[in-house]
Amino acid sequence: MSKGLAQIMKQAQMMQQKMGKLQEEAAERTAEVTTGGGAVTVVVNGKNQVLSLVIKKEAVDPEDVEMLQDLVMTAVNEALKKVHQAMSEEMSKITGGLSIPGLF
User: Fold this and answer.
1) Which CATH number fits domain 3-95: 3.40.50.150, 3.10.180.10, 3.30.1310.10, 3.40.350.10?
2) pTM for the full predicted model
3) What is the DSSP string of 58-77?
4) What pLDDT does 100 receive?
């Protein structure tokens, strides 16, 4: 095997190790979003799991359930977007900006 190919293989293995570590760390990375002036707060991790959801009692109006649903949905989607962006930025550092589908 030529030295150039061996070097490429070594770099690919190092990149794979770094990506594996980043994926392991994903569970530890979190994003928090608050909507409705503090009515709903959600925390998610890099594995797209909701870790915490807080709804203030003032936000619960039986006559306007749709508003609460919208606040929760907005908070969850924004938190997922934030954590995904953070993970994508970290992945970009590892891959040197190469877009590898399916990673983050």
Assistant:
1) 3.30.1310.10
2) 0.71
3) GG--TT-HHHHHHHHHHHHH
4) 57
